[in-house]
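SEQUENCE-TO-STRUCTURE ENTRY
===========================

Backbone structure tokens: a row of integers, each naming the local backbone shape at its residue.

Task: work out the structure tokens from the sequence, keeping to the layout shown below.
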Amino acid sequence: MLFHARLVRWNGTAASGAERVAPGDRFEFPDPNAPGGENPIAKARAPRLTTPHGRHLARLYEDEAVLVISKPAEVPVHRGQGGFTRRDTLEDVLERAYPPPPNATRAQQGYYFVHRLDMETSGCLLIAKTEHARDELVKAFSERRMHKEYLAVVAGEAPWTKLAVKKPISYIRADESGATFSAARKRARGKPVLRGQKKGIPLEEGDESGKACETHFEVVARYKGYTLLRAIPRTGRTHQIRVHLQSTGHALAYDPLYGRATPLRLREFSLRASASEEGEQVVLNRLPLHAWKLRFAHPETGATIAVEAPLPRDLKEFVRLLRKYRARGTAS
């Protein structure tokens, strides 16, 4: 198991278990007494988290009570999330990896979601493995004792360095014909939404007809026509970061519901590529929003658990493209 997980090193390189050992060879392996959530041996023994199509989900932390995974983009948390029915959901993955205990009641499970991410958002997702952990973590979320940080790429160059948005949000849904309700359409500036799609509308600060929300933004880097931001939500409303970004005039660089609805292509960034087929290459076709960091008190021990999900390859490549073609002082 340790060899398969590439956790054993032989003379400085990963060992396969088939090496011929000679006097003086040096083997390195994990400490079996390391804390549970940080113990690579325990991680190697844990059930694999793989979708039916073979996509592996990375564990960021795990012990007997909690699990934090790095959710890939476009993998929904729940079946039917966003109005779509897909086989590859986190519910399917976790039901296979953590089945209910023997003789469990219908309400009992082997895992419990305590929050959610939009289908196209990647990054840290916290899951409870016991009912007690679920109750404590849900309470921590409701009491705003969870620290969450996101990275987002938005359209336009934000004129501020830091900004706190406290606009309440109300929600609308499409009617059976696929158009928005007439009253809500005015507040949404006439933009139609998909049938059944939930859409957030930012209200004026202090408006009690919506749900109270608060998000703090901080500029990480500015590019010509784009900004990389850090977002810290103090509340956890549906689409909160996306709605608040739209309200500032800087929606996500790609967001069919709140901003641009067409994928970004290489020809928009490189004049050389625009005259060739290479220019049609799609460089961004999902929400550039990543749940970067998560910090919380362990529901059993009270110890502080801090995890970080590395930026996935697609967003890392998009930021690299911005640095190459949209750095300030360079021509696109």
User: Anything to note?
Assistant: Residues 215 and 225 are 22 Å apart (CA to CA).
